[in-house]
Amino acid sequence: MRFRQASYPQPLIFELRGREDETVENPLPPSLARGELNIPNLEESEVVRHYTRLSQMNYGIDCGFYPLGSCTMKYNPKIMQRLAKSERVRSIHPYQKGDTVQGALQVMYELQQMLCEIGGVDAVTLQPSAGAHGELTGMLITKAYHADRGERRTEVVLPDTAHGTNPASAAMAGFDVIEIPSKNGCVDLDALRSSVGRSTAAFMLTNPNTLGIFEKDVLRIADIVHEAGALLYYDGANLNAIMGKTTPGKMNFDIVHFNLHKTFATPHGGGGPGAGPIGVKKELRDFLPVPIVSFDGKRYYLDYDLQKSIGKVRCFYGNFAVLVKAHAYIKLLGGNGLKKAAERAVLNSNYLRARVEQVLDVPFPGLRKHEFVASALKLRKKGLRALDLCKRLMDYGFHPPTAYFPQIVEEALMIEPTETESKETLDAFANAIESIMNEDIELLKAAPHNAAVKRVDEVKAARDAILSWKMMLRK
Ligand SMILES: *Cc1c(COP(=O)(O)O)cnc(C)c1O
To answer: pLDDT by residue (tens digit) across 430-440?
Structure first.
């Protein structure tokens, strides 16, 4: 095993002492000068070394395989970053007059159109900043739609495989959330039938679901939901499995969100900025946030003419630089390219599943789409858990898969290889799991050994996050 991550005893940049302040003549009047800046006073080389060292103690998609199911970073060509960074993208201002930013409006308009086609919907807003934000927007539209029809529907139904943001978004929009159990990894139609009715506002679903299984009864699901007078919401965070093959629209969904930062090459490292546009069928177009971008045959313009709009969900028109990347990516691949990416994503996932199945359990039979969920339950009898396997994978130079989600699989490992990984990488990952399963128990319990950061207290890290120097000082 040759992987070993760099490790430096690197203090925080605020803890590096820096030069004594030289007395520089301050040209500002004293009333405008701050007493203390409270930033480190370091040489350029010290700053560069500091961040280079931190980067070497990090692990990212540019270092190696990153099979983080569902929330994974897919292919992020560097050309997209260059476009987003270009002077022309950076220097425009949202208050500029429309006739001075026709190019930018065209990019947004075309992106709306392309997402309409990919999603099988009739209208798109680019405003929401993330998947969860798109879900919230969708839920607010759902609420406005029912209110407009004079109905008060208070419940949102979703399956137990739903991504955690789904119930959170529904609750945030003021709905009561009802979770129904799955049957053989898919929506249980009987449970669905008995849980939807006159108080149901929407059913939220992702297809393929978070187990990577395609809900083949989706049209019947749509009928059940629509017959109850409710809307069908599609969590389209990961469209990698179906792009160019089918659309949420064809599956009779009414509202769809797209995570540009998962499917369309706009990485959102460190939590942002992202983009989570939503698309709707034409009956719901009037409820979209304003403005959307329209085209009158001659010029592109910001269109505020949506009669029932829920208002704004974000300042201005969306994260423009992020939209530029997604636009370029979709144009670069084209329809056939997107379809090919979907085929590769599904092929890679099934190849890896077939390899992993030889050492771990993979509950539920059949082919998967872009991801699959294995179970590390076998480790229990050795007193080990999925977490130990994940930590040990880091020693082999792999980012661990998503663990303990979805919750209906015990000791779940959710693995998404993505469309761009080679057979060699997939084999190396499967081989690593295979050899870990035969390793010494104590070795696994104390892993990772070769990573810059050893076991962390995950509960404390989540509950007691110190995210800035100011928070640290307050502690
Ligand atoms: C990532 C993800 C979300 C949430 O998207 P964010 O941009 O992280 O808010 C929702 N659903 C699924 C299935 C996801 O994978």
So the answer is: 999 999 999 99
> How far is residue 453's CA from residue 474's CA, in Å, rounded to a whole number?
25
Tens of pLDDT along 144-165?
Answer: 999 999 999 999 999 999 999 9
What's the confidence (pLDDT) of residue 149?
98
Query: What local confidence, expressed as pLDDT, does residue 14 receive?
Result: 87
Q: How far is the CA of 322 from the centre of ligand 1 (A)?
A: 16
pLDDT at residue 91 is higher than 80: yes
Distance, CA of 238 to chain centre: 8
Three-state secondary structure readout of the chain: CCCCCCCCCCCCHHHCCCCCCCCCCCCCCHHHCCCCCCCCCCCHHHHHHHHHHHHHCCCCCCCCCCCECCCCCCCCCHHHHHHHHCHHHHCCCCCCCHHHCHHHHHHHHHHHHHHHHHHCCCEEECCCCCHHHHHHHHHHHHHHHHHHCCCCCCEEEEECCCCCHHHHHHHHCCCEEEEECEECCEECHHHHHHHCCCCEEEEEECCCCCCCCCCCCHHHHHHHHHHCCCEEEEEECCCCCCCCCCCCCCCCCCEEEECHHHHCCCCCHHHCCCCCCEEECHHHHHHCCCCEEEECCCCEEEECCCCCCCCCCCCCCCCHHHHHHHHHHHHHHHHHHHHHHHHHHHHHHHHHHHHHCCCCECCCCCCCCCCEEEECHHHHHHCCCHHHHHHHHHHCCCCCCEECCCCCCCCEEEECCCCCCCHHHHHHHHHHHHHHHCCCHHHHHCCCCCCCCCCCCHHHHHHCCCCCHHHHHHC
What pLDDT, on the 0 to 100 scale, is given for residue 315? 92
- Would you say the CB of residue 274 lies under 6 angstroms from ligand 1? yes
Distance 19 CA to ligand 1 centre (A): 45
**Does 406 contact ligand 1 (Cβ within 6 A)?**
no
Query: What is the mean pLDDT of the segment spanning 389-413?
Result: 96
Q: Judge if pTM exceeds 0.90.
A: yes
d(CA 163, ligand 1 centre) in Å: 7
